[in-house]
Design brief:
Layout lengths: L19 E9 L2 E8 L7 E11 L1 H7 L15 E8 L11 E4 L2 E2 L19 E2 L11 E5 L3 E3 L5 H4 L2 H14 L5 E6 L3 H12 L2 E8 L3 H9 L4 E4 L5 H11 L4 E6 L4 H7 L3 E9 L13 H6 L3 E4 L7 H9 L9 E5 L4 H9 L5 E5 L2
Helix pairs in contact: 3-4, 3-9
Bound molecules: zinc ion (ZN) (2 copies).
């Protein structure tokens, strides 16, 4: 990465910002269009980011169906990177022309949980690309404190900064003991980030178990785990059984990052006595699964979850600057907002490792 402090003049407050912009906007669940709307106005403590790329993730499929925090009309996009195009008069942390990645979550700081130092669990979360306009637009407004300089990190790597921040929070939650054996189900973009962070934070050995395909191929190419198990569509029980036999004492930590309820249900059988099960995937809200409470009691199993990131982008940038977190090659297909329907299909069918929306 290059210089973090832009050498652009800080006394300018904006830079060639047009009146109108193109954006992908939902009017309600499943109803979207490319619209021409006003460029957002910014307040004294805000910045306007000219978006260069914004990652597409599984959560966007949930927003598409109107789930999670979705509020209409909605411009989705919560994994955005771009260049500062305008700043409010109080803004000091970034200047015009700086390239930044945006943290999409803003806690209210005054609710029950925020005042108990748990902003991640805020009851009134402002979610850029969820309940306020996000990054599938040419410009997006953010409070200045949510944007972080990324130097010359390429756009298609910068879109991984937010998912990596979520993974970083997952690592904090896991509290991996030194020398642990870890099993990770799933190696989507998030799994690939988790895998790298797991190995840098105490795991002696990491196994990835995943369906075959471009994602597992890339994981192997990047060399992010110690062993890889392919779970096929037609014989999953055989392979799961083989994995169990090969690891009779199970794993200290088992991470479910596929979002598949059947995998989550079985994942607990791989947890060592005294071990932890990490619920990392995003499941449909209506899903229920069955676990044996006797087993959880008898084996003193800890079940924990990691909801999202809050303020973890600076840590991610440290790993990236140190050359330790590999972000290249994961976002492997780009689309324009006009191609959103096609992009959604490709993400749904898992034809891409990770898609990103890009702008000129
Ligand atoms: Zn996401
Ligand atoms: Zn709050």
């Amino acid at each position: 990465m290059g210089e973090f402090k832009g050498d652009t003049p800080r006394n300018r407050l904006h830079h060639d910002v047009p009146e109108k912009m193109k954006a992908l906007q939902y009017s309600e669940a499943e109803k979207f269009a490319v619209v021409n709307i006003d460029v957002p106005k910014i307040g004294d403590d805000d910045v306007l980011v000219k978006i260069s790329a914004c990652g597409v993730c599984g959560t966007d499929l949930h927003y598409h169906k109107g789930e999670f925090l979705a509020k209409w009309p909605l411009i989705p996009g919560h994994e955005a990177a771009g260049t500062i195009a305008a700043i409010g008069k109080n803004v000091k942390n970034v200047g015009i022309g700086d390239r930044v990645a945006a943290d999409p979550l803003q806690p209210c700081l005054i609710c029950f949980h925020c005042t108990r130092r748990k902003p991640l669990l805020c009851d009134n979360l402002t979610a850029f690309g969820g309940n306020v306009p996000g990054g599938f637009a040419e410009y997006c407004r953010y409070p200045a404190r949510l944007v972080h300089p990324i130097g010359d990190l390429p756009d298609l790597e910068a879109v991984l900064v937010e998912p990596a921040a979520c993974a970083t929070h997952g690592i904090e939650r896991m509290q991996i003991e030194v020398g642990s054996r870890v099993l990770l189900f799933g190696c989507g973009p998030t799994g690939m980030l988790l895998a790298q962070l797991i190995r840098m934070n105490g795991a002696a050995h990491l196994t990835i178990a995943s369906k075959g395909g471009p994602k597992l191929d890339l994981a192997k190419e990047l060399g992010i785990a110690d062993s890889y198990i392919t779970i096929s569509d037609d014989q999953p029980h055989m392979e799961m059984q083989a994995l169990k036999s090969a690891n009779p004492y199970g794993f200290d930590i088992v991470v479910e990052a596929t979002g598949a309820p059947t995998v989550l249900e079985q994942a607990i059988d791989f947890v060592r006595k005294g071990g932890k099960l990490v619920v990392y995937g995003v499941y449909d809200e209506s899903i229920k699964i069955a676990w044996s409470p006797f087993r959880i009691w008898e084996h003193e199993i800890t079940i924990l979850a990691s909801f999202c990131s809050m303020g973890h982008i600076p840590e991610v940038i440290e790993y990236v600057k140190a050359g330790k977190l590999k972000l290249g090659g994961i976002a492997n297909k780009t689309y324009r907002i006009e191609e959103w329907a096609e992009c959604l299909e490709a993400v749904r069918k898992q034809e891409v490792v990770k898609a990103a929306i890009v702008f000129d």
